[in-house]
Write a sequence for this structure.
C-alpha cells in the first residue's frame, strides 16, 4: 500500500465533490447500474413493494446484503434468521471501512462526516477508493468520496427502479445474463484490485472453498471461507514477507 | 410474503433486517478503527479477511444460483467468468472487455442450451 502523503490540491472542495461524481460515470458505475437493474427485477419477481426496494438500496447500499435480505424473506427464512445472515455477510464491510478509514479523516477530525463517508463504502467505492485515494490530496479525499458515493447511489436507485419496472419484459436468456452480471463483474474487479501474495491467496481460498461449505447454514459458510480463508492468506503473506 | 402487504411494513423490515445489521459494522469500523495505522499487521489481516469474504459472496452467487440463473448449467456459469477474466487480461486489463466477453459467452451459451 502506498503512503498517505499526496501532492498538493489544485481543486476546491466543490471541485473535488464534482470530480468524485464524474468518476462514477465509468465502467464500475455502469456495472453497478446493471447489477441493480438485476436486483430491481428480483424485487418485482418476489413481490417486494417498489419504494421499500428503493429504500433498501439507499440505506443498505451493499448488493450482497440486499440480495440475502430479499432472498431470505422470499424463501421464508424469517426476519431474525435473515437479519443474522445479513449481519454476517456485512461483516466484510468492517475491514473494508477500517482499511479505507485513514483516507476519510480529512484535515480535521469529524465523526459525523466520517460516518457518512463510511456509509458509502461498499464494493465499488472501496475498490475505486483503494485505487484513486492515495493519488488524491488529503483535503480532496472526503469531498471526492462524498461526490463519488452520492452519484453511485443515484445511479443505483435508477437501476433498482428501472429493473423493477422492466422486469418480466426481458426474454429468459437476457434475464440469465443480467443475474450473472454482478458476480462476473465483481470477479473481474477483484482480480484487478489484487496486489501481492496475500490478496491472491485470499481471493483463491474465498472463491474455491465456497462450493465445499455452501451446504452449511446460519452463515457458517461465509465464516469458514471468509474468516478462515482470509486468516490463512494473511499467514501465508506474512511468511512470504519474513523470508525476504 | 405476508410482511410485504404495505410499503411501510416493508420499509420497517428493510431498516431492521437490512440497514441496522449492515450499518453497525461501518460505524464500528469508524469508532473502533481509529487507532489502527495504515500498513499495520491488524490492517493487513482485516484486508485479507475482507478480500476472502467478498470472494466467497461472489462465489456463492455463481455456485449456488437463484432465480432464472438455475437454468444455466454450472460449467457455463464458470466458463462465463473464466472467459471474462481471460478477456480482461488479453485486452489491456479492460474491465469492460472482460464483462462484455463473459456476458456474450453466457447469453450465447444459454441461447443454445436453455430451451
Amino acid at each position: 500500500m502506498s503512503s498517505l502523503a499526496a501532492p498538493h490540491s489544485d481543486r476546491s472542495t466543490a471541485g473535488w465533490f464534482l470530480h468524485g461524481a464524474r468518476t462514477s460515470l465509468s465502467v464500475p458505475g455502469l456495472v453497478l447500474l446493471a447489477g441493480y437493474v438485476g436486483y430491481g427485477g428480483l424485487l418485482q419477481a418476489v413481490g417486494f413493494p417498489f419504494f421499500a426496494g428503493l429504500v433498501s438500496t439507499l440505506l443498505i447500499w451493499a448488493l450482497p446484503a440486499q440480495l440475502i435480505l430479499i432472498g431470505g424473506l422470499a424463501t421464508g427464512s424469517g426476519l431474525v434468521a435473515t437479519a443474522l445472515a445479513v449481519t454476517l455477510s456485512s461483516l466484510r464491510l468492517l475491514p473494508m471501512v477500517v482499511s479505507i478509514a485513514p483516507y476519510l479523516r480529512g484535515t480535521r477530525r469529524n465523526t459525523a462526516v466520517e460516518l457518512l463517508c463510511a456509509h458509502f463504502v461498499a464494493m465499488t467505492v472501496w475498490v475505486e477508493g483503494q485505487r484513486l485515494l492515495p493519488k488524491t490530496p488529503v483535503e480532496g479525499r472526503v469531498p471526492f468520496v462524498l461526490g463519488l458515493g452520492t452519484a453511485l447511489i443515484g445511479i443505483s436507485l435508477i437501476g433498482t427502479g428501472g429493473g423493477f419496472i422492466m422486469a418480466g419484459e426481458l426474454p429468459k436468456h437476457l434475464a440469465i445474463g443480467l443475474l450473472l452480471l454482478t458476480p462476473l463483474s465483481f470477479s473481474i474487479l477483484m482480480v484487478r484490485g489484487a496486489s501481492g501474495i496475500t490478496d491472491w491467496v485470499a481471493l483463491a481460498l474465498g472463491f474455491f472453498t465456497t462450493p465445499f461449505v455452501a451446504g452449511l447454514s446460519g452463515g457458517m459458510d461465509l465464516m469458514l471461507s471468509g474468516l478462515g480463508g482470509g486468516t490463512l492468506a494473511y499467514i501465508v503473506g506474512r511468511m512470504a514477507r519474513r523470508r525476504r | 410474503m405476508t410482511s410485504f402487504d404495505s410499503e411501510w411494513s416493508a420499509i420497517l423490515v428493510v431498516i431492521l433486517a437490512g440497514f441496522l445489521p449492515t450499518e453497525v459494522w461501518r460505524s464500528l469500523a469508524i469508532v473502533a478503527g481509529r487507532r489502527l495505522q495504515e500498513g499495520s499487521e491488524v490492517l493487513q489481516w482485516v484486508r485479507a479477511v475482507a478480500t476472502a469474504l467478498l470472494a466467497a459472496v461472489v462465489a456463492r452467487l455463481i455456485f449456488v444460483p437463484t432465480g432464472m440463473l438455475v437454468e444455466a448449467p454450472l460449467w457455463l456459469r464458470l466458463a462465463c467468468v473464466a472467459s471474462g477474466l481471460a478477456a480482461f487480461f488479453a485486452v489491456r486489463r479492460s474491465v469492460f472487455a472482460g464483462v462484455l466477453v463473459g456476458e456474450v459467452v453466457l447469453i450465447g451459451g444459454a441461447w443454445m442450451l436453455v430451451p
Q: What stands out?
A: DSSP finds 13 helices and no strands in chain A. Chain A touches chain B through 105 residues (CB under 8 Å). Chain A has a mean pLDDT of 86. The radius of gyration of chain A is 19 Å.
